[in-house]
Amino acid sequence: MSDSETTSKRVSSMKNGFLVLPFRQPKSKVLPSKTASYHYVYAKMHSSKNEGEQNCIFVVNLPMLANTESCKSAINAICEKYDTVSHLESLVHSDEFGLGEVDLSALTSDLMTNTEDAAEKRFTPRNTALLKFVDKASASNCLSALRKYSSASKSSIIEWEYTSPSIQTFLNYYKPLNIEYLKEDVHTHLSIFEQREQQAQ
Amino acid sequence: EEEHTHKGKKVSSNTASYDIHVARETAELFQSNIFKLQIDELVQQVQVNDKHILKVEKFLHRLYDLIQQVPDWEQHSITDVLAYFKDKSVAIPFVDPKPAPASTNYKFNYLAPDVSLIGSFALKTGIYQPQGSSIDVLLTMPKEMFEKKDFLNLRCLHKRSVYLAYLTHHLSELLLKEGLGDLLAVEYAYFHDNPMIPILKIKCREDAPRSHELNFYKTKFSINLIVGFPYKIFESKKLLPNRNCIRIAQEDPEVPLPLTSLYNFSVLSTSTFEPYLKFLYKCKKQTESFREASILGRLWLQQRGFSSKISQSGGLGGFGNFEFTTLMAVLLNGGGENGNKILLHGFSSYQLFKGVIKYLATMDLCTEGHLQFHSDITYTSAVSKYMPEGFQTPTIFDKSTKINILSQLSVNAYNMLKMYARETLAMLNNVVQDQFANIFLTNISKSDQLKFDLCYDLKFPRNGSIESDLLSKFTAAERIKYITVENFIVHKVISVLKYALNDRISNLEVELIGHRSTFPITKRRPHAATPGHQFNFESIRVKLLINQEEAEKLITKGPKHSDSPSHEAVLFKGFWGPKSSLRRFKDGSITHCCLWTSSSSEPVISSIIPFAIHRHISENLVIDNNITKMFQSLLPLPNIAASSKTSVLNLSSFYTLKKSFDDLYKVIFQMKLPLSVKSILPVDTAFRYTSLTQPVPFAYSDPKFFQNIILEFETSQKWPDEITSLEKAKTAFLLKIEEQLSAEHGSKYKSFFTRDESIPYNLDVTTLNVLTPEGYGFKFRILTERDEVLYLRAISNARNDIKPALENTFLQFTSNYLASIRHTRTIENISHSYQFYSPVVRLFKKWLDCHLLMGHLKDELVELIAMKPFTDHYPYSMPGSVENGFLKILKFLSQWNWKDDPLILDLVKPDSAYEDQMEVSIGGSEIDSSTMKKLSEKLTLVQYKSIQSNFRNLRKNDPNGLHLQFFVASKNDPSGILYSSGIPLAIATRLTALAKVAVNLIQTHGLSKQTINLLFAPGLKDYDFVIRLKIPNKLKVSSGIITETEFKNLANADAPTEFPADLDRLSEKMDPTFHLVKYLNMKYKNSMIFSSHRYIGVNGNNEGSENVVTGLIKPMFKKQMKFKVNMDCDAKPLDAETVVLNKESIYHEIAAFSNELIGKFEIQ
After folding, report:
1. What percent of chain A is predicted at pLDDT more than 90?
2. Which of B40, B404, B550, B715 is paired with B287 by a 20 to 30 Å CA distance?
3. Residue of B705, B1059, B1125 for testing the chain A interface, max A β-carbons within 10 Å
């Protein structure tokens, strides 16, 4: 495996404005580890009329199992490097495994979701997400830190910390559902459904 | 036609049969027209090259001149003859026993022969053969050379042998003198393998000078110089099949001498070449399509391994082109019971061919009757007639020459011929599917493993002990009957096996491996290729077609016991010896029996054959059939009592599961629920006997342990009109069932809920999993009449770009909830008639999983593909062994051009009776209602055509099959895409490639331990990377599998004998790698394909604690691409516009994802 950071010319941003953010990958016990390898995230300020999507950075290709926490810690580390502060609120529209690509519920009924929402239902391509910040300042602080980070020297590249699922995580899929929870869930859902039905009538 | 059929059903049966008749005639006319076109093309293709004919004719003229130059030789005594040849390099090919100088007082000489061309070259009915064909030149010995009694005691044969040797000697010298020595090679051969008719074979040498004007090497012709006797030189009456013409000394003069029919035939038939040529020539002149029909016959016979070769020395022979065309000529002149004509001169080649096939298929020429005719063309008034008198040997008797032209066809070979004729007749009567290729183009005798169900090799140890043992049994009386010891052995093996196996087999063939019919002119007779064998062969191969119904029965029933032993009882006891015993049956009868035991690794026949062969042929013969054993041992052995002693055909483990389900079914059916239960239908593999592993109680590590069940309630309008709520409502019902089950049957049944992911994007499906006291698991899901409506609504409401995804969701729903019911019912129903289907499909699944494909293919698709060799078995027989079925599947897959060809299956039971009835109906008689019913179950032409048009429509949009490869349709699914959509292209092509490699491997290296192991060794080198996973638990035993050699108690200690009290703990013995791979495939869906063993207990390591994950990068992602927001892959930048797949990063992610399970990461 070659060290891509040294052998190829470093690209800090793409032509269409995306910043290229390298993250060093932790050493793996099973992979050749002579040279480091890097994961690249692409980021750009997000502009949208949608009220829920203000103060957002659009990111492409987040590392495996990235969540709000892991993004927060990476952003904090970067901001810290460039003496700035930024508050990430949450990671939204992240659907790593494509589970929510299609909303069957919305497509089979107009009762469950607001019709306007459905019409304007946003569409996020696979392998992309939004980093939502608490305010405009946080978003722009972060972006400027990211800009610096994207062209920083090799030594300042930070390592991404993966959260690895355990064997138990995989085995848990076989475990029975909690029956009380299931009952409660069914009950709640069906009463909401009934209410809406009645309202519609 | 379809309309006719249905209308017919409603009205009276008379009208119905008339309509059917009309329908069939129309279809048949259509069929015969298509056939005509195909025949024209075929005949064109097999045409002999005219230039080749000219070339070889040139040589034939020269040969004629040379033969004329051979000097005459006056009469000599045997002593003089032997002295003459002593210093010559040419040996005299005497027939055994060679003439003894002391007792031979007749003379030998040579006078110039009458030379003529005979056979298909003369008749111009020959075809181009890739392996080359021979031209028969007849040299008739002059009349003056014979005395009246020369037909006796091999005298004429010996005269001929000397004649041939003298000719060979002079011809060789003349060839050298004329400078043709470099050009030609001469050797002795036996005409049609008959050791009584030695001939001289002339070929062009491969290394002959190309420039030589007579070089005919390229034509691939060889020339047979056949020495014949003059027509009517002997009194033919004395050489009738029921006469003795070889006198031997008998101890008891009262005992009649044995018949010498084979000898008599060999003498007479070599005097009648010319009359038969005239007979056939005349017929050919009268019948326009004669030549074409004879070409069809030749091809048909060839593809099935038949020829004019003598079948008494093993193999399929005795019925070649000569016999076929003669039969056709005979039927053109009568052949019916009243001498009515079976064929008419105006018939097309299709009709002539079909007529002959039908005659062979339906008329018995052996036990119940025979056919007689007159070959004398001057005797025009004589008609051929079927006579209701059988001679226990196939007979077409020529009253003119007194020859039975089927003399070289053994009863056994005749039975095979008749079977092929019957199958071909069924194919010809199939008006729905095109069977042309199956009838004429597929060579089914290429591979014994595909043609036969079981093969056994009988091997001789090198010390020669068996040879002398057998020779001592070959008495003088046997010798005059069988002529050679080889014929005698073949006959003996066949009779022993037929008696021993009886109705366990439907047909058999015995072949002498290493048997030679050509030999150098310096030798008197052929010898086996390897030294150390006295006989003209090395080993004997027994090939069986088994009778599925009877093959595995444990008792060989003999005659009833009586106080004075009957002839049959004596025979039975004598044959079986100590194995025979008396048993009392339920009906009180006492019968002679033999008792056998079944085994999971070997068929019962494998125990019977060694016993019978050792007892009756020779004790020291080594009987080898490891192939069957190896294949059967590949099937996972269930951890159930006595499973190693259970036949592969035994389905009891499945029945036990079904019984457990039936009990649960009753419990649920009786429940008081807000809606009453309409149906509870099993839809999973164990219910149709196709699960890779057999059901074993408490073996919950098996991925198929929980068997899917579909539950339907009576119709209700109250189901929510939105999918999530509908699923929640279904869960509410399942919760009610769970409540009652635990309240009323809690001591017996345990149950729990899990999420179900079988329908993409429907995240709210839950299933109720019930564990039965017998140790089985069933997974209940609910089907309502609303589901389909909602899925369809989702498609119509969706944006165009996600429509395909939703269509796929609908397809998954249809296949899992609706079609699965029909599929299970159909397969379960018909598989009882295809006994080997269950073990074959299970082995096929194992092979697929071994090659990491099972995770990508639906069970239903695999099962349908595996059904192909059973329901659509032509031109082969229906599989009668595990290896035969399995290899046929591989063969089919290797040849399936799925781009252009759909697989259309007719999922009905086999019914030979049905075909017979149809046959009668063509003759115009009525069809009864049961035939009508059967007819309606089969695919009709209209249905078939509509499926074909579905396929064409599909290919219009996807001409190369990039989106959907396997179109597999049946009446259950005319769309053909239900189970095969969503298979990645790379996986489909890999399946085809693997099958090709497998078939190629077997074709080049044969079946052996090594090749079978290779068949089941996954090729991991073809993937981009391989991840070795190790799990902490051993899942093999808890998947219900043991190995035969394993110490039983030890194995059982590991096997769960109950379900854990805390159901959470079930997950401890489940396979974590399944979910790992599932998520990898979900995450990298766009750019990569991950594969792994689905059945870790079967294909993991010895303990079921290892798995392997392979990754394949899709070709599109192997090159640079433009950076795009929606490119959906992990990419690294090369410059400001281009990116490339970031493999290193992905590998790290995968390694981190598989962290606790990963053992090794191999990058290719």
Report:
1. 30
2. B404
3. B1125
pLDDT exceeds 80 at position B534: no
Per-position DSSP letters for B478-536, written without gaps between them: HHHHHSSHHHHHHHHHHHHHHHHHGGGEEEEEEEEET---EE-TTSSS---SSTT--SS
Q: Please, what CATH class does the domain formed by B650-731+758-834 belong to?
A: alpha beta
- According to CATH, the topology of domain B448-551+602-624 is Alpha-Beta Plaits (3.30.70)
Query: Do the Cβ atoms of B167 and B115 come closer than 8 Å?
Result: no
Which pLDDT does position B14 carry in this prediction? 54
Distance CA B261, CA B241 (A): 4
Would you place residue B922 in the very low, low, confident or very high pLDDT band (cuts 50, 70, 90)? very low
Q: Give the residue ranges of DSSP H helices in B565-650.
A: 567-576, 605-616, 626-634
User: In this structure, are strands B903-904 and B968-969 parallel, antiparallel, or unpaired?
Assistant: parallel
Q: Which CATH class is domain B1020-1035+1070-1163?
A: alpha beta
Confidence class of residue B919 from pLDDT cuts 50, 70 and 90?
very low
Domain ranges of chain A: 4-164, 165-201
Q: Please name the member of B725, B1074, B1133 whose beta carbon is closest to the beta carbon of A11.
A: B1133
Read off φ and ψ for residue B382, nearest 5 degrees: -75, 135
In angstroms, rounded to a whole number, what is the distance separating the alpha carbons of residues A175 and A169? 10
The pair of three-digit structure tokens given for residue A80, joined into one six-digit string? 């810290």
What is the band of B247 on the pLDDT scale with cuts at 50, 70, 90?
Answer: confident
Instruction: State how far the Cα of B878 lies from the Cα of B910, in Å rounded to an integer.
Output: 9
Check CB contact of B718 with chain A, cutoff 8 Å: no
Residue B65 clears pLDDT 60, i.e. is over it: yes
Can you tell me whether residue B1113 is helix, strand or coil?
strand
Nearest in space to B750 (alpha carbons), one of B731, B725, B728, B768: B768
- Structural tokens at position B276: 């038969």
Residue B345: phi and psi, rounded to 5, are: -60, -25
Give the residue on A whose Cα is nearest the Cα of B806. A102
pLDDT (tens digit, 9 = 90+) per residue, B281-300?
888 888 888 988 988 899 89
Secondary structure of B829-871 as H, E, C letters: HHHCCCCCHHHHHHHHHHHHHHCCCHHHCCHHHHHHHHHHHHH
Query: Residue B1092: beta bridge partners?
Result: B1109
Residues 6 or more apart from B910 whose CB is under 8 A from it?
B833, B834, B870, B871, B878
CB–CB contact B1153 A30 (8 Å) = no
- A190-194, B14-18, B387-391: lowest mean pLDDT where? B14-18
How many Cβ atoms sit within 10 Å of the Cβ of residue B179? 9
Check if B272-445 and B650-731+758-834 are the same fold. no
- CA distances from residue B718 to A107, A200, B674 in whole angstroms, order as listed: 20, 16, 11
The answer to whether domain B46-250 has CATH 3.30.460 is yes
Res B1114: pLDDT: 93
pLDDT tens, residue by residue, B394-444 = 999 998 888 999 999 999 999 999 999 999 998 888 878 888 888 888 888
pLDDT above 70 covers a percentage of chain B that reads 93
Task: Work out the angle between the directed axes of helices B321-331 and B290-303 (0-180°, nearest 10).
Answer: 140
Answer whether residue B154 shows pLDDT above 80: yes
d(CA B905, CA B967): 11
Distance (Å) from the C-alpha of residue B823 to the closest C-alpha of chain A?
27
Distance from CA of residue B770 to its chain's centroid? Answer: 42
Chain B residues whose beta carbon lies within 8 Å of the beta carbon of residue A63: 1149
Range B272-445: architecture per CATH: Orthogonal Bundle (1.10)
- Which amino acid type is present at position B252? D
Q: What are the tens digits of pLDDT across the range B48-60?
A: 888 888 888 888 8
The fraction of chain B above a pLDDT of 90, given in percent, is 45
Higher pLDDT, B278 or B706: B706
